[in-house]
Amino acid sequence: MKRKLTLFIVFFLFLSVKAFTQNEEKKWFLSIGSSSVLYSQEDASAVGGRYKTQFPRLSAGRYMFKNVTFVGSVSFTLSNPQEYATLDGTMRYDFGTSNNTFSPFVMIGGSFIKSTRSKYLLPTLNFGFGGTIWFSDKLGLTGEFMYKYNEERFQSQKSHTFASAGLVYRFSLFGNSTSSSSGTKIIRDSKRKRIWNTKN
Q1: Residues of the chain with pLDDT under 70
Q2: How far is residue 9's CA from residue 77's CA, in Å, rounded to a whole number?
Q3: Is-contact 185 177, C-beta < 8 A?
C-alpha cells in the first residue's frame, strides 16, 4: 500500500511541475470547481452517507501527445476535509477536438480517497467521460463524470459515481510559436475552430 501511495504521489507531482497543456498551441490548463459523490443505497451505511459534496476541486493538465492529456486533480470539503478527500490522476483522449468550441473526451485513471471511515488512503480505478465548452480561446466550462471502482477487500470504501464541473483557463507559459526557414514566428493568438467549420 505504501509503495502504491509513493508511486501515485510521484506521478501527481510530475503532472503538477511539468508544463500542462490543453492543445498544441496553449499547453497549460488550470481549473477550479466543485464535485459530488453518489454511493448506492446499499453502501450508504458503510461510508457514512449516500451523497457527499466537495469544494474546491482543483485540476491541472498537460497535453502530452496527439489527442491525449494527463490531468491531476484534488477535491475536498473546506468545512470538513476528512469527510471525503480525493487525489486523482487521469488520462484523457479527446478524439482530436481540442481546438473545437466543444471538446468531448473519455478518460481512465486512478484515485486515492481519504474519508472519516478510513485511516488510510484507499485506491480506486476510474473511468468515465466529460467535455469542455470554450467561451473564448482561453476560458471555458468543463465537466466530467466518473465511476470509481473500489476493490471489495477495502470495506471502509465502496465503488461509487463521481461528477464535477468548473471553470477552466487555458494558456501557454512561453507564448505560441511555429518554426520556419527564416526563424521562429510568434503567434499571439489562435482562432478556435467552430464545430460547424470543422472538416469531417
Answers
A1: 1-25, 175-200
A2: 20
A3: yes
